[in-house]
Amino acid sequence: MKQDSATVARATYHAYVRKDRKGLEALIADDFHFSSPIDNRLDRAAYFELCWPNSDAIADFEIVHLVTEGDRVFATYVGKRKDGSRFRNTEVLTVRGGQLCEVEVYFGWSVPHPAAAGTHLDDTASPTKHP
Q1: Is there a contact between 78 and 6 (Cβ–Cβ < 8 Å)?
Q2: For the segment 97-109, what is each residue's pLDDT rounded down to a tens digit?
Q3: Does the domain at residues 5-111 carry the CATH identifier 3.10.450.50?
Q4: For 1-81, where are the E strands, in sequence order?
Q5: Which of 71, 64, 27, 65 has the alpha carbon at shortest distance from 47?
Q6: Does pLDDT of 1 surpass 60?
Q7: CA distances from 52 to 13, 46, 87, 124 (A)
């Protein structure tokens, strides 16, 4: 039985928390690609080699937004690391046939935000520069 897109997305995050590589492998299609600000269309093998080891540091994900549109899921979450630090990201996941075939990650910010409310970090303190 094929799972709907939102269920596949949630199962992906749960696999990271549980350190369930076998479960994640079942969710990821053979023709899978992963992109982020530092990764350009990694294939399935490169994803597991470069990204899966990050699961060791992950303690939990708090889903803030999970919106589906057709075969795409737009997810914003706050990730919690085992060391207690937190971060916020947004991802666009494409699901076909009950499996992830593409993920785009857009890095957010640290939680709490490094800038005080109502202030702006100058370019020397910002992890990314404005164009």
Answers
A1: no
A2: 999 999 999 998 8
A3: yes
A4: 28-36, 39-43, 58-69, 72-81
A5: 27
A6: no
A7: 12, 9, 17, 31
